[in-house]
Amino acid sequence: MPPEKSAYALARYSRSADSIRQSVDWVRTHNSQQFLESFYFQYGHQSIADLGHTVLCFEGVSELAASEIEDEVLWDGQAKSSRYQDFSKGGFITPPELAGDDLNAYQNAGNALIAAYKDTHAKMDAWLREQLPRPEEMKPEAYGRNIAARAFDVARYLLFWGVPTNVGQVTSIRTLEKQIRRLRVSEYAEVCELGLEVAEACAAKPECLWTDEEAEPLAPTLARHAEPDEYLGKSNADLALWASQNFSAPHEEGVRVDLVRPNDTLTEIAATLLYPVCDVPFRTIYDTVRGWSDARKSEILDVALQSRGRRDDMLRGFRGGQYCYDMLIDVGAYRDMHRHRRCHQYRQAYSGLHGYEVPRQLVQAGLEAEFRATMDAALETMHHLPNPARQYLLPFGAKSRFLFKMDFAEAEYISRVRSGVKGHFSYREIAWEMKLRMDEQEPELGRLIQATPPWIEDPLKR
Ligand SMILES: Cc1cc2nc3c(=O)[nH]c(=O)nc-3n(C[C@H](O)[C@H](O)[C@H](O)COP(=O)(O)OP(=O)(O)OC[C@H]3O[C@@H](n4cnc5c(N)ncnc54)[C@H](O)[C@@H]3O)c2cc1C
């Protein structure tokens, strides 16, 4: 199925009693673009786009562009191997920004590197054959391939970002949208153009079909909406400017591998935000920032957030610290909270020994007594049944204990998304309390969490 159609079918599946076969039939006769327009783009149900995947290939892009393409956390793919393929055959990419003498200088240097790569590979191949003679039991072809690969490992040092490569990727259309938006604000013209080309590919009929079926565009709605990620572009520029005015440290190479163990998340996040716009080791940045006042550290966070829009996730730099939220919550809320993936979760046994929640509205409606009687009876029966089968009787209102470990950005994300008026009152309160706990312990970070208090209600909003 085209990814936008499968996203529609599976999203609809969560809200309808239909089987998947019926849902797919429904999608055949209904407009998936209209559905995505309202639910994905208008209401912001972003996880709908997790439900459709695309296969996309980039051919003849520079190694530099490939590296930018692959810079996604949730990305599956493979790029051309510098161990098994000869990179001397494809020439090299010339950045469209270059002209005149610069262009000539680049091309001469590029040709020299490719020639040296080819020459080094041949010489290393010969040298390795002398050093590592073929064992009798090894077939000559296998021996030749192994030696060639080892020689390429050495020759690789002469390859450069401009050599062309091929990349094949599988991503959800959510990741793809993020990727297009990020590529479109790249500082490299080639990468910006690739962002546009990906969007065009999403709107066009796909190539390389497996069968002769009539092909539909893969993700036309996404293609219409994948605008450049202004926040990413702007915040990088803002941070670079701030660093140039406020941060200086003498040039230093540092050690090859350093292990820094931050013990203060505010400092860690501020230093991480500065890292991409500085050229000294992280330890130096961290140690410098640690000496600053909280107000100065917070200034960096504010600079990184000043151009953030309503739907923008915090920059990666905010994924710092480790927060362990221990929650004694109803199972229904856990079912919802459990779905957050950018964290590590642990649970204790479903014992049924922690009591249960009584919804306020149920009390107001005069139903408390009968509710309690039903819950008590179920829990009583549960405790007489053998374990683990008895856990099947645990009502969703019963409480159980769960540990959620996450970084600051995920705490902010869960508090913000789950406290919104659209949500269930149970997890809304939990999400709000997550913010309160952060406020108490990390006021400079807690203030950045824009959670909606539970007393702001709009029950008719979906
Ligand atoms: C109002 C509301 C209604 C919902 N209704 C339903 C429902 O009817 N049925 C149902 O099953 N679920 C429902 N959910 C749950 C929803 O489908 C998600 O499972 C849940 O929101 C957690 O996923 P997330 O991506 O929002 O956050 P997390 O998993 O916490 O991820 C945090 C961030 O990491 C990134 N990320 C994580 N995983 C991926 C990924 N695979 N691809 C791309 N980016 C990723 C994204 O930037 C994301 O914002 C609902 C959620 C809300 C808030």
Please provide a written account of the structure.
The chain has 462 residues and is mainly alpha-helical. It has four domains: 3-76 and 164-228, no CATH class; 83-158, no CATH class; 235-306, no CATH class; 322-446, Gyrase A, domain 2 (2-Layer Sandwich), CATH 3.30.1360. It is 50% helix and 9% strand. The strands form two sheets. Strands 1-3-2 form a three-stranded antiparallel β-sheet. Strands 4-6-5 form a three-stranded antiparallel β-sheet. Helix 1 packs across helix 2, helix 7 (173-183) runs antiparallel to helix 8 and helix 17 runs antiparallel to helix 18 (425-441). The longest helix is centred in the N-terminal third of the chain and has 32 residues, at 100-131. The protein starts with a helix and ends in a 16-residue tail after the last helix. Flavin-adenine dinucleotide (FAD) is lined by residues 14-15, 47, 50, 74, 172, 174-175, 313, 339-342, 410, 413, 417, 422-423.
Write the layout of secondary structure elements.
Elements: H1 3-15, H2 20-29, H3 32-42, E1 53-62, H4 63-69, E2 76-79, H5 100-131, H6 140-155, E3 164-172, H7 173-183, H8 189-203, H9 220-225, H10 230-246, H11 265-274, H12 282-290, H13 294-305, E4 323-330, H14 331-337, E5 344-347, H15 360-364, H16 368-384, E6 399-406, H17 408-418, H18 425-441, H19 443-446
Helix pairs in contact: 1-2, 5-6, 7-8, 10-13, 11-12, 11-13, 17-18
The structure holds flavin-adenine dinucleotide.
Flavin-adenine dinucleotide (FAD) is lined by residues 14-15, 47, 50, 74, 172, 174-175, 313, 339-342, 410, 413, 417, 422-423.
